[in-house]
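SAMPLE LOG
Freezer: B-3
Tube label: C17
Construct: single chain, 255 aa
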Amino acid sequence: MTQEAKQFEKQSDTSGAGAFGAGKSAFVTGASKGIGYAVAQALAAEGYRVTITSRKQDEIEQTAKNIGEHVRGVVCDVKDAAAVQREVDAHVAAFGGLDVLFVNAGVGHFANIEQLSIEQWQDVIDTNLSGAFYTIKAAIPAMKERGGYIFTLSSLAGKNPFEGGSAYNASKFGLNGLSEVVNLDLRKYDIKTTQIMPGSVATHFNDHTPNEDDFWKIQPEDLAQLTVDLLKMPARTLPSRVEVRPSRPDRKPKK
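STRUCTURE (predicted):
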């Protein structure tokens, strides 16, 4: 067996209960609730030491406490490139490196393009696309040290335009393109990149409050399980784009 093959086998070994994430760390943006929270919780359960970010101090502190020890909750607006770099550097200093980056922070403003304001456009693009670029760029030096995995949380809206979605569609189409180029640029450093593209998810996105009518939707825990499963894939294999849909359509009675 060649040295490179031996390295792949070593990276792919997930034997040992509870040992998968031991000695590794993850940085998850937009993690005070919803998908980011579920992913951070799942990674912590696998033994990862995790930094989670949010723009709200009270929410992120409580979330970190809920997940448990070895979790850092920090305030960070991904639109601020300097703040992102500062928090990634602090994560590396605290945990000795960075193995998993989950780029999740996102916003949505939905309106006919005639009514969509310049400020709303900028908020969506600066958060969903530029914020992803800032986060990935800040993480590259640490991830090059020992390889790693970058996940970008995109959407089926990244390939399916819809009325009133000009800013959101543009941000997710752009994020998909960015993710594909990041994969090409960084895979030579043993850094994988996967874009996860879910459909309807039961989260607080766009001021929605999850409720019993969301039973048919993808749950945040489903995407967290997917993330862990992808991390456990053999090192030689990369699902670079994963589309995720509810297995059944919305069948609740129409009012």
